[in-house]
Design goal:
- With 452 residues, the chain is of the alpha+beta class.
- It folds into three domains: 4-103, Rossmann fold; 132-201, Dna Ligase, domain 1, CATH 3.30.1490; 207-451, ATP-grasp fold, B domain (D-amino Acid Aminotransferase, Chain A, domain 1, 2-Layer Sandwich), CATH 3.30.470.
- 35% of the residues lie in helices and 27% in strands.
- The chain has 16 helices and 20 strands.
- The protein has helices spanning 11-23, 40-44, 63-73, 89-97, 107-114, 116-125, 141-151, 174-192, 249-266, 296-303, 307-315, 394-407, 417-423, 427-430, 438-445, 447-451, and strands spanning 4-7, 27-33, 47-52, 77-79, 101-102, 155-163, 166-171, 197-201, 207-216, 221-233, 236-242, 269-279, 282-289, 332-339, 351-352, 355-357, 364-368, 375-376, 383-391, 409-411.
- A hairpin with a 2-residue loop joins strand 6 (155-163) and strand 7.
- The longest helix is centred in the middle third of the chain and has 19 residues, at 174-192.
- The radius of gyration is 22 Å and the shape is globular.
- The termini are far apart.
- Bound molecules: ligand MV4.
- Ligand MV4 is lined by residues 131, 156, 164-165, 200-203, 206, 208, 232, 235, 275, 277, 286-287, 436.
């Protein structure tokens, strides 16, 4: 096992990785920008190295500075966390070339899944269900129009280099296709330096359901069930739960087994997530994420498996100790993302946290690097805490979540806590009856929004 790991990230997820390392007896190195010098994740690490000024480009995305920090501290492996360099295949490659271990999948798998056209081709080969659409890239507007007639409107034009909702354009009827195709092409070229596009049938009211997998690259792979991530707005997830209230046990087992099988056939190593849209009882693969995800704790809560520890063990060359039959699913878990932002306008709200009190008790977990008196810098993602609540049933989980949100105190910055309190009281949410469009409409109807 590694003796020392460098954590190439910040905040809540950096602390989460530190915790896994600590329990495994691994020394940690924090890297940080000047804006994060007093952060809790930096304080708790065994060593820390300042790698640059606040701007991400000059610090958390500064590859030479991170590799230098690993060299001078004698770290053996680098964990990229989420965001920043976590899905950068060139970074993973460079880490290995400099003699360190990248705690994540092989660079070729990161690159494969980063190209959404190649990812879909791979998914097709692996036997995963896909939406009707182009096989590979669409070369011209004429080709797109012909294909759209075949699959039927509405269609969605997506960028091969996009993902996570970036670079998508809807054509609702034939008259919209040419314009949307041209716009998608221009925006994709401008944003990603790549104008490759593909098209799919556009689903109007899907749920977003993703399957967590672990592979060891040596022929073993398992799934850890699904997470329902439909509660989102503008591609920012607000709340995630597992199991999904939309699936029955047969659907759950079937999609899990297919994802595990795909992971095994790929020879994938590490943690990964297959994203699906789910509508009318059908799953359709859309993307694969080749990193640990923000919402991984809900899976940990219902399986009891430490996903970051598994990532580290796999990266250190261990075979997956767990077999599918060793994984048991128990109860229900919900994560609320607490962001430092106005809950009605979603405007970021950086600043000094003047008071802080976290909820506790049975089934309540808070992953956060916040403390009373700390600063939330304006330069980064606004996620400041994850409230993860579990219970034996979804109803118990909901009751516990309600009281945990009542206890949570964050003063000095605006947070999404008031929105969570309101949304978990909504009948549709209580009934598990929501899709990816639900939250947008809910927020529009909130009176608080008008005065925000
Ligand atoms: C779609 C779709 C409807 N139909 N594809 C957005 C993020 C990216 N991962 C794929 N996305 C979507 N692809 C087809 N053919 C709707 C979305 C989508 C979405 C998906 C998951 C979670 C939230 C979303 C919000 C808006 C749109």
């Amino acid at each position: 096992m590694f003796e020392k790991v460098l954590i190439a990230n910040r905040g809540e997820i950096a602390l989460r990785i530190h915790r896994a390392c600590r329990e495994m007896g691994i020394q940690t190195v924090a890297v940080h920008s000047t804006a994060d010098a007093d952060a809790m994740d930096v304080r708790l690490a065994d060593e820390s190295v300042c790698i640059g000024p606040p701007q991400s480009r000059q610090s958390y995305l500064n590859i030479p500075a991170i590799l230098s920090a690993a060299t001078i501290t004698g770290a053996e492996a680098i964990h990229p966390g989420v965001g920043f360099l976590s899905e950068n295949a060139d970074f993973a490659q460079m880490v290995e070339e400099h003699g360190f271990v990248f705690i994540g999948p092989k660079p070729e798998h990161i690159a494969l899944m980063g190209d959404k056209v190649e990812a879909k081709r791979a998914a097709a080969r692996l036997g995963l269900p896909l939406l009707p659409g182009s096989e590979g890239a669409v070369g011209s507007e004429r080709e797109a129009a012909a294909l759209a007639e075949e699959i039927g409107y509405p269609v969605l034009i997506k960028a091969a280099s996009g993902g996570g909702g970036r670079g998508m354009k809807i054509a609702r009827e034939p008259g919209e296709l040419a314009g949307q195709f041209a716009t998608a092409r221009a925006e994709s070229q401008a944003n990603f330096g790549d104008s490759t596009l593909y098209i799919e049938k556009y689903l109007l009211r899907p749920r977003h359901i993703e399957v967590q997998v672990l592979g060891d690259g040596k022929g073993h792979a398992i799934h850890l069930g699904e997470r329902d991530c439909s509660m989102q707005r503008r591609h920012q997830k607000l709340l995630e739960e597992s199991p999904s209230p939309a699936l029955n046990d047969a659907e759950r087992a079937r999609i899990g087994e297919r994802a595990a099988e795909a992971t095994r056939t790929l020879g994938y190593s590490g943690a990964g997530t297959f994203e699906f849209l789910y509508e009318d009882g059908e799953f359709s693969f859309i993307e694969m994420n080749t990193r640990i995800q923000v919402e991984h704790p809900v899976t940990e809560e219902i399986t009891g498996i430490d996903l970051v520890r598994e990532q580290i063990r796999i990266a250190a060359g261990h075979s997956l100790g767990l077999r599918q039959e060793d994984v048991s699913f128990s109860g229900h878990a919900i994560e609320c993302r607490i962001n430092a932002e106005n809950p009605w306008s979603f405007q970021p709200s950086p600043g000094k946290v003047t008071d802080y009190h976290v909820p506790g008790g049975l089934g309540v977990r808070v992953d956060s690097a916040l403390y009373a008196g700390c600063s939330v810098p304006p330069h980064y993602d606004s996620l400041i805490a994850k409230l993860v609540v579990s219970g034996q049933t979804r109803n118990e989980c909901l009751m516990r979540l309600r009281r945990a949100l009542e206890e949570f105190v964050v003063e000095g910055v605006d947070t999404t806590i008031p929105l969570h309190r309101k949304l978990i009281a909504a009948t549709d949410f209580i009934n598990g009856d929501y899709n990816i469009n639900w939250l947008e409409r809910f927020v529009e109807q909130c009176d608080e929004r008008k005065s925000a």
